[in-house]
């Protein structure tokens, strides 16, 4: 599933529930900062799987591999063999963002649990709870800004909340967008309003102002996508056409063509779509 949705935390909670006081001795956790080549699989993981640990009946040692999709193909092949040999005493929990990067023999030996991106309501409820427990001064607009910038990523939401509270003392919308270094949605909504009215000159000036403020093309395009997606007063057909054009521009920017000319072409395309729909 996507990052920040609780994959590793869920595994750890399950392991603590199953193993209790033996958690420290019976769990091996390797994350992205650890070396996880074929030598580590053959050495560290195999050694852990072979060692004896006294556990209650029906319980097994657990190996937690975070971001397993970043492991090399050779390491994954070695891991498959280790999983086969020590299945009687050890269970393997693999967390990854893209399951297709994990080889099929490993996937076939696992029960796949897919995590979806968290809803805005779930992120808002948890961020509000954390702010209350930590005594952080917030505004409703500030919490909404945290949720908007997180895009369903709870880790990113909590990091933004902490950074804003430490840096500004008060979590309001202006401070959150300064910390996250994203264009303010209100400015992007004004650009969208100009595009919906086919006012290309005004839309271009709004884009130029954001670009000259130091925001990259990707920042502007990503925020525009979210603003269009969350817009409540757009024709559904026009919204889908807008999203398609924003997606094409995002693709070109991700390939390295991120100049202001691309953004100018985008607002021109959006205004053209508006005129075509109105005709």
CATH architecture verdict of the largest domain: 3-Layer(aba) Sandwich
Q: State the helix count.
A: 14
Could you tell me how far the N terminus lies from the C terminus, measured between alpha carbons in angstroms? 43 Å
> What is the CATH superfamily classification of the largest domain?
P-loop containing nucleotide triphosphate hydrolases
Number of strands: 5
* Radius of gyration, CA atoms, in whole angstroms: 24 Å
Structural class: mainly alpha
Describe the structure in your own words.
This protein has helices spanning 7-19, 23-26, 38-50, 73-85, 104-108, 120-134, 140-150, 154-168, 173-180, 185-196, 200-212, 217-230, 236-254, 260-278, and strands at 27-30, 61-65, 90-94, 137-138, 170-171. The strands form two sheets. It has a three-stranded parallel β-sheet with strand order 1-2-3, with helices on both faces. The protein has a two-stranded parallel ribbon with strand order 4-5. The longest helix is centred in the last third of the chain and has 19 residues, at 236-254. The chain is elongated and about 70 Å long. Helix 11 (200-212) runs antiparallel to helix 14 (260-278) and helix 12 runs antiparallel to helix 13 (236-254). Helices cover 62% and strands 6% of the residues. The chain folds into three domains: 7-108, Rossmann fold (3-Layer(aba) Sandwich), CATH 3.40.50.300; 120-180, Helicase, Ruva Protein, domain 3, CATH 1.10.8.60; 185-278, Up-down Bundle (Zinc Finger, Delta Prime, domain 3). The two termini are 43 Å apart. It is mainly alpha-helical. The protein is built from 14 helices and five strands. Helix 3 links the parallel strand 1 and strand 2.
């Amino acid at each position: 599933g996507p990052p920040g949705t609780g994959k590793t935390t869920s595994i750890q909670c399950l392991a603590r529930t199953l193993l209790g006081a033996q958690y420290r001795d019976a769990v091996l956790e390797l994350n992205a900062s650890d070396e996880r080549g074929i030598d580590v699989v053959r050495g560290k993981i195999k050694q852990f799987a072979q060692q004896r640990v006294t556990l209650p009946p029906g319980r097994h040692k657990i190996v937690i591999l975070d971001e397993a999709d970043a492991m090399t193909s050779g390491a994954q092949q070695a891991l498959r063999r280790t999983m086969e040999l020590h299945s009687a005493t050890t269970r393997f929990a693999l967390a990854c963002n893209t399951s297709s990067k994990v080889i099929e023999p490993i996937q076939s030996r696992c029960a796949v649990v897919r995590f979806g991106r968290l809803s805005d309501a779930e992120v808002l409820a948890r961020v509000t709870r954390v702010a209350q427990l930590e005594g952080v001064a917030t505004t409703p607009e500030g919490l909404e800004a945290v949720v908007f910038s997180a895009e369903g990523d709870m880790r990113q939401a909590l990091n933004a909340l902490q950074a804003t509270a430490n840096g500004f003392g008060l979590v309001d919308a202006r401070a959150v967008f300064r910390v996250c270094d994203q264009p303010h949605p209100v400015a992007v909504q004004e650009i969208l309003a100009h595009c919906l009215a086919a006012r290309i000159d005004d839309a271009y000036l709004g884009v130029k102002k954001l670009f000259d403020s130091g925001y990259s093309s990707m920042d502007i395009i990503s925020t525009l996508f979210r603003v269009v997606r969350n817009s409540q007063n757009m024709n559904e057909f026009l919204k889908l056409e807008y999203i398609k054009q924003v997606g094409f521009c995002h693709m070109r920017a991700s390939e390295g063509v991120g100049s202001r000319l691309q953004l100018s072409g985008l607002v021109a395309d959006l205004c053209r779509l508006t005129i075509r729909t109105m005709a």
